[in-house]
Amino acid sequence: MYRSQWDLTSPALSRNIDLLLRIAPYSVQLPLINKIRDGRSFLFMDRRHGKTFAALVAVAEFGLQCSFMPQDRGPRILMVLPTEDAIHDAAAYLRVILAGTRVKYSTDKDRYQDQVRSDIILGRPRELADLVLQSQFPISALELCIVDAAEVLDSLAMGYIKEIVQCPRYPPPGDHSQFVMIGSENLMRLEFFAHVYCERIEEWKLPE
Fold first, then answer.
1. Helix, strand, coil abundance in the chain, percent, nearest 5
2. Which residues pair with 183 in a beta bridge?
3. Could you tell me which residues come within 8 angstroms of residue 74 by beta carbon, excluding any fewer than 6 positions away?
4. Which of 78, 117, 158, 183 is in Cβ range 3.0-4.6 Å of 145 for a Cys bridge?
5. What angle do CA 122, 125, 130 make, to 5 degrees?
6. What is the pLDDT at residue 65?
7. Which of 122, 130, 131 has the alpha carbon at shortest distance from 95?
8. What is the pLDDT of residues 130-170, one digit of tens each?
9. In this structure, are residues 45 and 183 in contact, taking their beta carbons and an 8 Å threshold?
10. pTM of this prediction?
11. 86 — phi, psi (to 5°)?
12. Domain DEAD/DEAH-box helicase spans what residues (predicted)?
């Protein structure tokens, strides 16, 4: 049975994750989940499959912890995805992973009231930037931001992510929050973005 380092109180979460890991096992999944658990910001570029699911597992685990915290502070987790289809697929996985738990998630298409009350928000760069930059939107409690499939994001999308992490109300990556960028190609622009706009970020590599 799958065991979470972050939470040992939800048999439903462990059972759901264990089932999905058995259906689609990839070598990258558990190492990436464990790396996100460390709590440090990092950049990860690898061509192997399974990275998005690993990120969703980590998001679900951390979301379960957050679901026991006061809801009036706003979301704790942002997951940035490149397209509407990617968000749809990620939400479908989360629906299965989080079945039977109290974790709330929403997407960039949901009502503002639902987004504010969510533990996790999935969205595209522009839509999340528009949401975060609203003066009344609570972002001071954000603890984890994951950018997935970063290799397909163009400079405009990167600019929106920059607006998010440089928002004065956004907790600075490092001691206050974790920023993770995941891609499938070794593109210099991803490394440049991560190091220029996010403090204390390392490039993590997984042995072949």
1. 45, 15, 40
2. 45
3. 116, 137, 138, 139, 140, 141, 142
4. 78
5. 95
6. 77
7. 122
8. 998 887 888 878 889 999 998 888 888 888 998 888 888 88
9. yes
10. 0.87
11. -65, -40
12. 47-169
Residue found under tokens 């006061």: 70
The single-letter code of the amino acid at 161 is: I
Q: What token pair was written down for 179?
A: 């920023």
Q: Which has more pLDDT, 24 or 103?
A: 103
Of the two residues 189 and 161, the one the predictor is more confident about is 161
Tokens of 141: 């409690």
CATH numbers and ranges of domains, the chain: 11-64+71-204 (3.40.50.300)
* Closest residue by Cα to residue 121 from 129, 158, 96: 129
Maximum CA extent, the chain: 46
Q: Which residue type is seen at 117?
A: R
Q: How far is 151 from 164, CA to CA, in rounded Å?
A: 18
Q: List phi, psi (to 5°) of 78.
A: -115, 135
Q: How far apart are the first and last CA of the chain?
A: 26
- Amino acid identity of residue 3, one-letter, is R
H-run or E-run covering 190: helix 188-197
Burial of 105-127, coded b for 16+ CB within 10 Å and e otherwise, reads: bbbbeeeeeebbebbbbbbbbeb
